[in-house]
Specification:
Blueprint: E1 3-14, E2 20-27, E3 30-33, E4 36-45, E5 48-57, E6 61-68, E7 73-78
Length: about 80
């Protein structure tokens, strides 16, 4: 996997119980649909809380998305 750490646009469901589920995101000029969220965990770096989603696309492509809670910005961290 290659580290990218680039801000991206994500369509996600924010449930009332606090759960977040990304559905798809835009990478360059194409839309990547998330088939399955393989792993979700939280990290806190220099006071910034982030939720990390390890996602599967096309049964083989793995993407790591990070959602920064305070700034509400999504990042494509790894591809």
């Amino acid at each position: 996997m290659k580290i990218i750490n680039q801000p991206i646009k994500v369509m996600a469901i924010f449930q009332t119980n606090g759960k977040i589920e990304p559905l798809k995101f835009r990478l360059d000029d194409k839309v990547v649909h998330i088939e399955k969220i393989m792993k979700t965990y939280e990290e806190k770096i220099v006071g910034n809380k982030r939720i990390i989603f390890v996602c599967l696309h096309n049964g083989k492509d793995i993407y790591e998305l990070k959602y920064e809670i305070d700034s509400k910005i999504w990042y494509l961290f790894k591809q």
